[in-house]
């Protein structure tokens, strides 16, 4: 075991996969010589050479298209899109090509591409470096969508994603690259070394895609969250002293309906949290899932706590961010309505 | 006078009722363009982007440095492939008009592009076609019955009923799946070629798009990535003058040739007579050899003409002169190769007619076999529950649940085409009449 932050854990996952599987290649803007603007690919080009770790032109559509072609030719490309906000030029290649290639060719062609991309706000990134577009991709048939909340999960899930035979969009919540951010920007940063999930095996291991994790057992209310919001929800639970069960969704597609419904049927209450805008957001899918699976056990309406339905504003990011106070308020109201 | 800016809105030289006018197509005499060595530097090949490589002259002889000196037997094979492509296209068009298939796209007038290129490349080379490259399938020997079954979405459909007609694929024949979204395959071919180079193979990739879709960002991505990494790929722009109703001027063709985009990226561009089988073969061999020698990509513009409608859903008489093709200065690729072979003493009108009859019979036999596996409107049909397969490699729980839901619904209704369902339809019809 070693202490790793999320950047190091992700780097370790790619290091191991480059070592184990000659088909694995890394490509993206600034990922090679420089090691990535968030340092996630640091040292990999030096170690594996510039045919395995490629700096690319600034063209997200070209990066994903090239990765698809490489995948068709038997490689396992891991493409980095520098910010999730930059993924839209690649949207057609992801949605119309990557996601549907196996389907449209009745299984004759496929491309096992992993797209890694940092998402989420709270870094003074304004409306073009803060978005959480996961719901746009979960709506597309044929791609798996993953978002880890800690270094241990990040490494295990990234290795699983690279080994997976289907395309995966792997969102990395950049606010928790260096520590488990609890939603209060004024408190000093907590490093991952002080968190149990910052303990990461140095070798190869995988976590199953399609399995959620109960990160805090409880009996009163179920909180469904993923990425940064798992830690913010935990802070909210401490704040309002309600015995909440926190389920970390971890893999948005495929969704672990069983773990979610088991928890909500036990607690009879549910709050859904994500940082992305609420309207038509992924939380609506979670609410529908809970409603279908747990309606007769529910004792109060399900509540959603999300980013407001506005672009992410630079100067007001903490007013935009669904912080502990808003989540605590939702938890209290769900319990009071019961 | 006050200064003001004005938009230039491109107009084709002729519209319905006008006399066709192709004076804008710049031609070079056959044999006039020099053939640089395949290792030539970019400045040494820049002239190829604006000239027009032609081999067949007006007397049907093969002339000049680009003459590929193919054996008459190879030329006869090329003629057979082009003719089979045309006969196949004509049959499928008729079948669409009879309501047997939902849609079709002919490649009439452009057969030399796919057939000559398919023959110039090696079987291991990976092809990323557009939707008008059926000649590639003919060259590589895919059974026409298989292509027809795809168009019919029947029980033998390679796409299992998931794709519109003509969106074929063939993994073991090294032909990539056709998307339907334009130009997406262009940068994918570059990625495939990069992987071939990373793996140290001598296989190369080739891709095709129309001149209209060079306007897509994917074209720019493809050329940028191909140039940056020197990818072993041949990027073909099939300039057939028309993108549905918009002429090539709407993709910027009025100002520079499409081949000239290549040098702008640091890639050789070759403008070739796309209706000259020998010229297309020669420039493709040049580009392929260059790519295999680590010389990197080549952009080829095939100057040709879309003789048919864009698709069976299109009506070109609404936007271009009816007889425009007859005025096309580069003629018909099949007629030109036929006349060349006759001039060589290796072909005759009689042999040509006999070949046409033979290929018609072949296509008829294939069609008979294909419809025996079902059509879109009459059984037998594929089980609709197969629609849940291949979304992922392994079916996740939510899709398995939906498949069970569909199966439960299917259990409630008689299957399509079954006697019970036909009886139900009959009853519905007679009820409607009574009503």
- Number of β-strand runs of chain B: 7
Strand order of the largest sheet of chain B: 1-2-3-7-6
- Can you identify the CATH superfamily of the largest domain in chain B? Thiamin diphosphate (ThDP)-binding fold, Pyr/PP domains
Helix/sheet category of chain A: alpha/beta
In N-to-C order, the SSE pattern of chain B is HHHEHHHEHEEEHEHEHHHHH
How much of the sequence of chain A is in beta strands?
15-25%
- Poorly predicted spans of chain A: none
* Structural Rg of chain B: 24 Å
What are the segments of chain B in which pLDDT stays under 50 over at least 5 consecutive residues?
Answer: none
Number of structurally distinct domains of chain A? 2
CATH topology of the largest domain in chain B: Rossmann fold
What is the CATH C level class of the largest domain in chain B, in words?
A: Alpha Beta
What's the name of the CATH homologous superfamily of the largest domain in chain A? Thiamin diphosphate (ThDP)-binding fold, Pyr/PP domains
């Amino acid at each position: 075991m070693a202490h790793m932050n999320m950047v190091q854990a992700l780097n370790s996952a790619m290091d191991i996969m480059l070592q184990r599987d000659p088909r694995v290649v890394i490509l993206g803007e600034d990922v090679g010589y420089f090691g990535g603007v968030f340092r996630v690919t640091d040292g990999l080009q030096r170690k594996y050479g510039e045919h395995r770790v490629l700096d690319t032109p600034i063209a997200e559509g070209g990066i994903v298209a090239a990765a698809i072609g490489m995948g068709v030719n038997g490689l396992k490309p891991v493409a980095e899109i520098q910010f999730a906000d930059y993924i839209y030029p690649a949207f057609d290649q992801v949605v119309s090509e990557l996601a549907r290639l196996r389907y449209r060719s009745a299984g004759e062609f496929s491309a096992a591409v992993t797209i890694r991309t940092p998402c989420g706000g709270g870094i003074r990134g304004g409306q073009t470096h803060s978005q959480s577009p996961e719901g746009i991709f979960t709506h597309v048939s044929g791609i798996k969508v993953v978002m880890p909340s800690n270094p241990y999960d990040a490494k295990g899930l990234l290795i699983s994603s690279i080994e997976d035979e289907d395309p995966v969009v792997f969102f990395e919540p950049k606010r928790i690259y260096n520590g488990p951010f609890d939603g209060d920007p004024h408190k000093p940063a907590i490093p991952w070394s002080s968190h149990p999930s910052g303990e990461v095996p140095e070798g190869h291991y995988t976590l199953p895609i399609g399995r959620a994790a109960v990160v805090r057992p409880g009996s009163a209310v179920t909180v469904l969250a993923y990425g940064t919001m798992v830690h913010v929800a935990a802070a909210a639970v401490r704040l309002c002293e309600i015995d909440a069960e926190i389920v970390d969704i971890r893999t948005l597609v495929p969704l672990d309906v069983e773990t979610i419904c088991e928890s909500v049927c036990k607690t009879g209450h549910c709050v859904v949290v994500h940082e992305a805008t609420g309207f038509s957001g992924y939380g609506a899918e979670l609410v529908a899932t809970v409603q279908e699976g747990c309606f007769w056990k529910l004792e109060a309406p399900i509540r959603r706590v999300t980013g407001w339905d506005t672009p992410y504003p630079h100067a007001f990011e903490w007013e935009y961010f669904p912080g502990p106070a808003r989540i605590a308020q939702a938890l209290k109201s769900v319990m009071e309505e019961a | 006078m006050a200064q003001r800016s004005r938009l230039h809105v491109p107009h084709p030289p002729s519209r319905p009722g006008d006399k066709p006018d192709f004076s804008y197509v710049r031609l070079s005499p056959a044999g006039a363009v020099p053939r640089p060595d395949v290792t030539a530097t970019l400045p040494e090949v820049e002239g190829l982007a604006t000239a027009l490589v032609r081999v067949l002259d007006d007397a049907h002889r093969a002339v000049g440095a680009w003459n590929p000196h193919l054996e008459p037997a190879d030329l006869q094979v090329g003629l057979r492939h082009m003719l089979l492509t045309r006969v196949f296209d004509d049959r499928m068009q008729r079948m669409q008009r009879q309501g047997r298939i939902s849609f079709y796209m002919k490649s009439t007038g452009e057969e030399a592009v796919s057939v000559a290129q398919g023959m110039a490349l090696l079987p291991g080379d990976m092809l990323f076609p557009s939707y008008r490259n059926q000649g590639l399938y003919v060259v590589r020997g895919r059974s026409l019955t298989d292509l027809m079954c795809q168009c019919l979405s029947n029980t033998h459909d390679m796409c299992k009923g998931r794709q519109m007609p003509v969106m074929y694929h063939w993994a073991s024949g090294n032909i990539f799946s056709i998307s339907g979204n334009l130009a997406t395959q262009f940068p994918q071919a570059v990625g495939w070629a990069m992987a071939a180079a990373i793996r140290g193979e001598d296989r190369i990739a080739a891709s095709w798009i129309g001149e209209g879709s060079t306007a897509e960002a994917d074209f720019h991505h493809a050329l940028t990535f191909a140039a940056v990494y020197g990818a072993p790929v041949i990027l073909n722009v099939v300039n057939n003058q028309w993108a549905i109703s918009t002429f090539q001027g709407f993709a910027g063709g009025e100002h520079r040739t499409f081949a000239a985009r290549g040098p702008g990226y640091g890639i050789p561009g070759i403008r070739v007579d796309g209706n000259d089988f020998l010229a297309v073969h020669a420039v493709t061999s040049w580009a392929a050899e260059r790519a295999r020698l680590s010389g990197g990509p080549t952009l080829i513009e095939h100057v040709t003409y879309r003789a048919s409608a864009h698709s069976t859903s299109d009506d070109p008489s609404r936007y271009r002169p009816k007889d425009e093709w007859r005025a096309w200065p580069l003629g018909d690729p099949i007629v030109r190769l036929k006349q060349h072979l006759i001039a060589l003493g290796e072909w005759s009108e009689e042999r040509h007619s006999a070949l046409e009859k033979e290929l018609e019979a072949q296509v008829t036999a294939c069609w008979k076999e294909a419809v025996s596996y079902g059509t879109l409107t009459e059984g037998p049909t594929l089980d609709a529950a197969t629609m849940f397969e291949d979304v992922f490699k392994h079916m996740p729980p939510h899709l398995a649940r939906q498949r069970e839901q569909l199966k439960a619904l299917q259990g409630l209704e008689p299957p399509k085409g079954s006697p019970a369902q036909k009886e139900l339809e009959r009853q519905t019809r007679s009820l409607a009449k009574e009503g």
